[in-house]
Write a structure and sequence with these properties.
The chain is α+β, with helices and mostly antiparallel strands and 480 residues long.
């Protein structure tokens, strides 16, 4: 099978060596421009593979910009060794573990450096764009599934599906065994509910601040997203000790951006932030097509339409977002859900707001089979982390290379902690409130996602009139 040249931030792992390939066991790794690759060793200095991407050492509070040492020794229990490494890292990365006993690909908490693979051809890559030449890309494209899931709008491919026949996505909390080319789940949620939620809050704050400190010490200026939402308010509270050393950035515009525009400006002016606004900028058709192709035709939503909005800070800043905080606020739960609620593929599909297809139902059946014995509320939290964060947000990593984006709420440790929170905390969105109260109580004066009842209603009406599909998607979610 002819292999394409690698685009920015793309990688490919297979049995065909190139001129600059890196040996990984019996396979060869090739990387595109500007994608960092660092060797990994265990605590005794034994080789343990490589890290791809933009990882952060949480204990050292630094960006990994050279070799990294796992704070554990290799031994008979490879699973425990890998878990120790993953729990020690933040940032976005892919760990290709290569030791005498095993060869595996481990994603970060949200698979933010994506991995798709062809088990028949024994090849893994960032996207189909890095794996298939133009002829194969078109021949294996699945237009029926692409259209059924509404991927040309706000839809996406959950459950390990992709836009191409025979290609599968590696989901968060799973590893790809490079000997058998099969996928194994390695994490199914926390062992128990937190007995002291306030201690969880303190730990999450420390994890976020460790990454902010690491980025501040790095080569680029830090730009923290500032919106009207809960997650960016948490980040702002955590960033209070560093506000003189970072910028806060808001994409401004009409419809859904108007709320962020007004509230972010209000907050910045009131408390004195270094605030920068970026006018929402539409992509040309060629730019949108390239965004979609670089992502393997797995996303074509508003990010494809407006991704040039952040280009003014690409090359000078690293962007920090609040992605992942929804794990702590029952995003896919409903009021009547309990730990015993029966979860089915049809229910999950409805809660995703997607149309049902046989391929999606089959893939979700397999996913649920791997969670036997896990309580239903945790399954719903995992569904958000794996099928939404991992398969929608993180899958866009290669689509717009240039601006490094970090999400400090998305680490293995913080995901574990957020899922440990009691159900009443999640249902009432208490984590964001607790972080603000602990770190910067003055922020409590600003409401979340609101400019007042009348203005909110007008904005919602305008958005529905501009895109009636929003109503249909919400109705599907309600049926779930």
């Amino acid at each position: 099978m002819p292999l394409p040249d690698l685009d920015l931030w793309q990688y490919r792992l297979g049995d065909t060596p190139g001129a600059d390939s890196i040996a990984i066991g019996d396979l060869w790794l090739d990387v595109g421009a500007d994608l960092p690759v660092w060797p990994v060793t265990d605590a005794d200095g034994k080789a343990a593979g490589v890290l791809l991407g933009f990882a952060i050492d949480l204990q050292a509070r630094r960006i990994i910009d050279e070799g990294w040492q796992v704070p554990a020794r290799l031994g008979a229990d490879i699973d425990a060794f890998a878990q120790a490494g993953l729990m020690a890292l933040g940032g976005r990365f892919l760990w290709i573990l290569d030791v005498p006993e095993a060869a595996r690909i481990y994603p970060d908490c949200s698979a933010q450096v994506p991995c798709v693979f062809d088990p028949a051809a024994h090849i893994a890559a960032s996207t189909a764009h890095a794996m298939l030449d133009d002829t194969a890309y078109q021949a294996r494209f699945d237009p029926d599934l692409f259209n059924a899931l509404g991927v040309d709008g706000e839809g996406w491919f959950p459950a390990g599906l992709t836009a191409h026949h025979g290609l599968h996505r590696l989901l968060p909390n799973h590893y790809l065994d490079l000997h058998s080319w099969s996928v194994q789940r390695f994490w199914s949620g926390p062992a128990a509910q937190a007995s002291d939620p306030d201690a969880v809050v303190a730990q999450i704050v420390d994890i976020v601040q460790a990454q902010i400190e690491a980025l501040i010490a790095g080569p680029d200026r830090v730009a923290i997203a500032l919106t009207a939402g809960r997650e960016t308010r948490m980040l702002l509270a955590c960033a209070q000790p560093y506000i003189d050393r970072v910028d806060f950035v808001t994409v401004t515009g009409s419809d859904r951006h108007q709320l962020d525009t007004v509230m972010a400006s209000r907050i910045a002016a009131k408390i004195g932030l270094n605030h920068r606004t970026l006018m929402r900028t539409a992509a040309t058709q060629a730019q949108r097509d390239l965004f979609i192709r670089r992502g393997g035709h797995c996303n074509a939503d508003s990010n494809a339409q407006f991704h040039p909005s952040v280009w003014p800070i690409a090359g000078s800043h690293v962007m920090v977002s609040g992605n992942g905080g929804e794990i702590a606020r029952a995003f896919f739960w409903r009021a009547a859900d309990t730990p015993q609620t029966a979860i089915t593929p049809a229910m999950l599909t409805a809660r995703f707001g997607l149309k049902s297809t046989p391929a999606l139902q089959d893939a979700l059946t397999v996913w649920l089979d791997g969670l036997q014995g896990v309580d239903s509320l945790t399954v719903l939290d995992l569904a958000y982390q794996e099928h939404r964060d991992g398969a929608w947000y993180a899958a866009q990593f290669c689509s717009d290379p240039g601006l490094v984006r970090q999400a400090p709420l998305l680490t293995m440790r913080s995901a574990d902690l957020m899922m440990q929170l009691p159900p009443d905390w999640k249902r009432s969105h208490r984590l964001s409130q607790a972080v603000v109260a602990r770190q910067w109580p003055a922020l409590e004066q600003f409401p979340y996602n609101s400019l007042g009842y009348l203005r909110d209603r007008i904005m919602k009406l305008r958005r529905v009139m501009a895109d009636p599909q929003i109503v249909l998607k919400k109705l599907r979610k309600l049926r779930g």
